[in-house]
Amino acid sequence: MTPFTRPEIEDLLFEEAALLDEWKLDAWLALFTDDARYLVPATDLPKDAPPEGNLFYIADDHFRMVERVKRLLKKTAFSEYPRSKTRHLVSNVRILSQSGDECRVSTAFVTYRTKGGHTDTYIGSSDYTIVRKAEGLRISAKRCTLDLEALRPQGRISIIL
Question: Quick one: pLDDT at residue 103?
Fold first, then answer.
């Protein structure tokens, strides 16, 4: 068992941000384990609310993540064709706990999305579960909690945070 270090965690999270900004969504998906979850709870839920029985903007298991990527890469994805320009900024990376080959990490994020002459700003915190695999570090869970009162004026989340 090799302890996790903040630089290796940051490298993974900065790579994730770069892949999203470059719309390399298949490569982004490869950063996740086969049993991964990607969650974005509604802005009025408590931070620890479970997706079962609560309204989430996004509550994807790995299958849904794959389908989301396929959809976003198609020309028929009208909300993202032509694609938005995004910039994902990740900061305040903290290792909260680690046990064996698993690590819990917290970050702050700002994601800018520009499309059609308008820029939306999504701010919040992300909680990750990261695991060490033979092929390197992989994300087994990502939960983005938005620090917004509502999704106005954006109205929706059509990008990956």
Answer: 98
HSE (CB half, 13 Å, CA atoms) of 35?
3
CB burial readout 19-45, b (16+ within 10 A) else e = bbeebebeebbebbeeebbbbbbeeee
Compute the distance between CA of residue 115 and CA of residue 122 in angstroms, rounded to an integer.
14
If we measure between CA atoms, which residue out of 73, 82, 65, 78 comes closest to residue 138?
65
Task: Catalogue all structural domains in the chain, each as residue range(s) with its CATH number.
Answer: 6-146 (3.10.450.50)
Q: pLDDT by residue (tens digit) across 49-86?
A: 999 999 899 999 999 999 999 999 998 887 888 899 99
SS3 30: coil
- Start-end of H helices in the chain: 6-21, 25-29, 62-72
Give the global pTM. 0.95
